[in-house]
Amino acid sequence: MIYHYTYESRVPVSPQVAWDWITSVDGISKEMSPLLRMTAPKGVKKITDVEVTLGRPLFKSFLLLFGVIPVDYSHVTLIKFDDGLSFTESSKMGSMKLWKHRREVIESESGGLIRDILEFEPVFASNAVAWCVNFLFKHRGRRLRRFIQ
Predict the structure, then answer these.
(1) Spatial distance between the Cα atoms of 82 and 53, rounded to a whole number of angstroms
(2) Which of 5, 11, 60, 72 has a CA that sits 20 to 30 A from residue 99's CA?
């Protein structure tokens, strides 16, 4: 079964500040903490620190439960990239038959709107995995609004 979710977070910062946050390893880590942490190669502080070739993996990242227990991996692959506006990631993951994540920054009256659009199909335990993904992205939204000021 393929799941579709959309999440929106309004943040009181300029679209450029929001973009810098959502493309940084530190920003992503703070959003997912303390539940998960994504690894990145040494020296990679943001996704543009590696050469972006659409459709080719930027790097392999491990998803660590509570920051220490490996639970999944992702060959982080961008299929669309509009610098400063949006990116779409469609990565091979151990737990997913399909993983597509679009992240957009939209200017709003109060600053910026960050929108996450997900399309995914788990390999197994579809309802449980969908529940976990939904929980994680709601958590990310709360953390995002808390940290990005």
Answers:
(1) 12
(2) 11
DSSP annotation string for 11-68: ESS-HHHHHHHHTBHHHHHHHHTTTEEE---TT--BGGGS---TTSEEEEEEEEETTT
Mean pLDDT over all residues of the chain?
A: 95
Tell me: pLDDT of 149 over 90.
no
Helix (H, G, I), strand (E, B) or coil at 138: helix
Given this model, what pLDDT does residue 109 score?
85
Helices (H), 33-90: none
Quote the tokens at residue 132. 């976990």
The one-letter code for the residue type at 30 is: K
What are the φ and ψ backbone dihedral angles of 68, each rounded to 5 degrees? -135, -30
